[in-house]
Design brief:
Layout lengths: L9 H16 L1 H16 L14 E3 L4 E7 L10 E3 L5 E2 L10 E4 L2 E10 L4 E6 L7 E5 L1 H51 L1
Antiparallel strand pairs: 1-7, 2-6, 2-8, 3-4, 3-7, 5-6
Amino acid sequence: MSATARKSRVLSILMIVLGPLVMLLSPVPGGIGFASMALTSFAIDLDGASVDDQPPWLTEPQTSVTLFADASELPPAEACVVTSPSGASVPVSGKGLPGISHTDSGVSYEAFAQFEATEQGEHAVDCADANTEVYAQSGLAEASQTMNTLFVVSAVIFALGLALLVLGIVLLVRVNRHNRAVIPQADNART
């Protein structure tokens, strides 16, 4: 190929077309994550899940259990004590909550604490110091982590599409600049 040959613009145009298409697809994983989180919050069933009314909380190991209370009377996480089936104390944390609330019969409930089941079996949840009704729901932290991961995937896909678009434009400008410089050289070579 000689120095006066024109360069093809196909690759740059392809990148310019594919970039926005990829960017348009980027919300899909985030939307799936958001929908799964919304479905999880709809699946919260606090009826009969009061830690005072039910037998000890039956869980699988490594399952997070989120504790809810009336949003107007949220107790500190330390108000609840959890005991594993073997009698060991299970740490209860108020940090890193999935930020989930639930409204039932006009009462708004918010997550205020969570614990992770350390072993299979019945975990006794005692919230006598909470001074309000406390409810438990399992699996919400896992759903929140899935949603966060899907939002990150969406951001990466969007960045990839944006990079394709920008690189396509830069490449097209360079190819056009090169081709404009080649045309006068080709005309001079003919004369």
